[in-house]
Amino acid sequence: MTVAEPHRIKSVEPLHMPTAAEREEAISRAGYNTFLLRSEEVYIDLLTDSGTSAMSDSQWSALMTGDEAYAGSSSFYRLEEAVRAVYGFQHVVPTHQGRGAEHILSQIAIKPGQYVPGNMYFTTTRAHQELAGGIFEDVIVDEAHDPQSRHPFKGDVDLGKLERLIDRVGAQNIAYVNVAVTVNMAGGQPVSMANLRATHYLCRRHGILLWCDATRCVENAYFIKEREQGYAGRTVASILHEMMAYFDGCTMSGKKDCLVNIGGFLALNDESLLRRARELVVLFEGMPTYGGLAGRDMAAMAQGIHEMVDDAYIAHRVHQVRYLGERLIAAGVPIVEPIGGHAVFVDAARFLPHLPRERFPAQALAAALYLDSGVRAMERGTVSAGRDPNTGRDRIPRLELVRLTIPRRVYTDRHLDVVAESVVGLYRHGESVRGLRMTYEPPTLRFFTARFEPAPEERHLRLCDGK
Ligand code: PLI
Question: By Cβ atoms counted within 10 A, which residue in 200, 214, 321, 386 is the most buried?
Fold first, then answer.
């Protein structure tokens, strides 16, 4: 059944397709890193769904009602009401975006040397945990690392792995367990309600706090409605409420599910943690009633929180991502399955089997896609994984992916047809895509600003590697 957009378009933004020569010049200047392209050099921008959503007319009007008082802004109280109603947490600490909340949580809850188990890492989340002296430990189910596994809840925590970690290091050496819903780096994969419940009881038994990275929690709730027995007849809003009840609190990047261009928050129930979070937010972000945001940003986010749990909206959102994924599957393109909630993840390792991991196949494929059609995607593989802080060596994740991320309410299915045609065309001539060599590597979160150049001696490298 066709799922049409549950909105009509009131304002448009023209797109510009750069010429082949312009694209070649642009990607070379950007060091073959799509993060370093200028937006006007891009035709269809699938770099991220973060802060790139279209706001509704109600959100634009909410901006005008923003209360810009330095302290006690009424927009803060509007945000607090929305968080209480939709997430169910009593307290909210606004931050400029998700990583601001991750920073505060890491600083108040991690003692140096403590472990922070999580269902796969996210770049900024782990970076803040490590900055606070924490040690990330991956406790996601094995299926999450297999792009071909069709497990319906590849984001699930492996309770055996978590329990073994607790036995090995002791509950007192675990700062908290951090569960992301959905799991971005696994391909936008959801966590089941049964798994959230079981993780909750396991943590409670050991007196360990359970935190949620709720960045894409509404997409997760929709997958529960679709896939988990007993939830088909429930609203996404009620499923989300139940999910959040298993957590002690959450960090949130409002730039995703909350349908705003900037904003985030920490939400929780515990008064003493709240006090410590507020002590830090004034240092790093701003007064506890604005936390790095303008009043108008909080007003737009409060409105977005109500809109994000509209059943028609979220059904279309997930189906639009699936539309692109299914077109690629039909043409035989290797992608992560099941198709996730915010993006289609192309399996660059299978797409470009001639390139060894040292030649950054996903980075090379993202650059090649831009050259082909002006479509901007993002590497999510070896470059994003960075280096182990203890050994200094490259982390080589099993997943070597290119993410085609769909902003919310921005592109139509016709745009996605153009994307699909370009990806399929490249797949047919994959062997022509050259590997890359890194020429500049920043010390942290290297994927944002690293630079590359085409690797000169592919055949020679492959012979040396014995591959
Ligand atoms: O970009 P922030 O600081 O608002 O949020 C950080 C963040 C936290 N958790 C998860 C799961 C994310 O996906 C996330 C940001 N993601 C980005 C920017 C992305 O492009 O996926």
Answer: 214
